[in-house]
Write a structure and sequence with these properties.
- The structure holds two protein chains of two kinds.
- In chain A, the strands form two sheets. Chain A has a five-stranded mixed β-sheet with strand order 1-9-8-3-4, with no helix packed on it. In chain A, strands 2-7-6-5 form a four-stranded antiparallel β-sheet, with no helix packed on it.
- Chain A is built from no helices and nine strands.
- Chain A is 0% helix and 48% strand.
- Chain A is mostly beta strands.
- Chain A has strands at residues 9-13, 18-23, 31-38, 45-50, 53-56, 61-64, 70-75, 84-92, 107-112.
- In chain B, 0% of the residues lie in helices and 53% in strands.
- In chain B, the strands form two sheets. In chain B, strands 2, 4, 5, 6, 9, 10 and 11 form a seven-stranded mixed β-sheet that branches.
- Chain B is globular and about 40 Å long.
Amino acid sequence: LAKTTQPISMDSYEGQEVNITCSHNNIATNDYITWYQQFPSQGPRFIIQGYKTKVTNEVASLFIPADRKSSTLSLPRVSLSDTAVYYCLVGDAGSSNTGKLIFGQGTTLQVKP
Amino acid sequence: KAGVTQTPRYLIKTRGQQVTLSCSPISGHRSVSWYQQTPGQGLQFLFEYFSETQRNKGNFPGRFSGRQFSNSRSEMNVSTLELGDSALYLCASSLGDREGEKLFFGSGTQLSVL
């Protein structure tokens, strides 16, 4: 399983776009890139997942360059409620491994008014 | 659709005791995974059950065990509790048979060992 490196913490202000970059130099061919969000005293919540290029959903975008050695989670116009820990995960998302996720230390995003 | 339900929400035990935690997955989900979260070690995978069989296992001692019932509900047991077992225990469910599936987590059981 590929190890991930992401910033320990980030600060932003309401209304700004936030980009969190994750490095995964040893990503394997079968690996997906997935991001989860966690609020205090709650379980993580799936945000977005991608394999290559760009993926966008109603809450975020995920940018993956051609070499796939890094990825960037983009949160448009953050609000105070986006203050949370964001985890980047890289791993084989094959059907027999769906339940096994390897979390890194995550990035604590603090959004200020 | 109801989410993942974990009971109890809080639990206080003393060293040497054992504890059983319960997890009810989302209806139709056959995979249930368990995770331990501590400030020092972060989120760590314990094990996963799929259709009543343990499919994946993390690096935890044998004091940590689990099982899954025919209705996909799962229980996790920790025997001979140690102070270091104090943690938030999270359960997650998914269909378990599709590539790239996302997990749905419960709110966890906060275990304190005194």
